[in-house]
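Bit of a strange request maybe. I'm writing a small parser for structure token strings and I need a real example to test against, not something I typed by hand. Could someone generate the tokens for this chain?
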Amino acid sequence: MAQPPAGFDETVAAIADDVLFAHALEVDERAEIPASHFRVLTDAGLFGIAGPLDTGGLDLDPRAQRRVRETLASGCLTTAFVWAQHQSVVRRLRDAPAALRDAWLPDLCAGRTLGGLVLAGLLPGEPLLRIQPAHDGFTIRGAAPAVSGWGHAGILLVTARSAPDEVVHVLVDPHSTGLHVRPRALAALNGTKTIALEFHTVRVPAAAVVARAPLPPWEAAGDGVRANGAFAIGVAGRCARICDEPWMRAEVDARRVALDGAGDGDELAQARAAAALFAARAASYLVADRGSTAIDLREHAQRLAREAMFLLAFGQRPAIRRALLEALAQIP
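Reply from user aminoacidic:
Good idea to test on real output. This should exercise your parser:
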């Protein structure tokens, strides 16, 4: 892993403040991330922070990657969310077969291609997405309830169930025959262009397989849970800056330290839940502080409150949900 280049943190902060936050209300109102946002992120090398050096990435360590995620989320969670899906694709392709790695990582790290993520095969219960061998490769059937970045993503990393205890990660062209889109309207982050995606016998070549792996237990809490907690820290951090309350700034730092230092399992689930709850509390404080003006669509308070609500539901695991509900049930 490499250290961020000189001035990197300042560059990311300037992008978050001067570009993303400056236009966050417009993105929210129009439900569209402007192409200029992606150009700015590309010019700063931010699409490749998780990529290896030999393919043009910055190869930042996970903690540094979380700081970038947090900072961008403090500017515009919609943009940060689509960008973060891309990072997951880059991380998965690091260990892909050489042909796939060489074919895709340079363009993904450079921001010439945006990656999209389809994780329906990991969801518990009856498989939503199934992948089966075919004479010329594989076929994928089923549905994914939520795929973000539609219309922006140039390639999809799809995780589908090949057996009760195995998944296959495979690259799929979003223009493939057999893909059917159902629009979704969200209360927050509508600009992520999140859709439901149906796979009607979508064919993929054997060479598109990135990896096969055991189906991980849904209860497991790993780096993805920790990284997603950075979204909440970012939203809370923006509320703290707007309110300029010392107690809120101190709590932002405390929640970040708790996430970074938590062990896997219940400890991490508790830290993730606490971060999301604090983001909701900070956004509610901002709304109350601003009074009746807070609910105007031209005000950041209502946007941040809806984003904090989104983070209470996004990326849950059973342990996170239990921690959230137990904490909320204790509110007088």
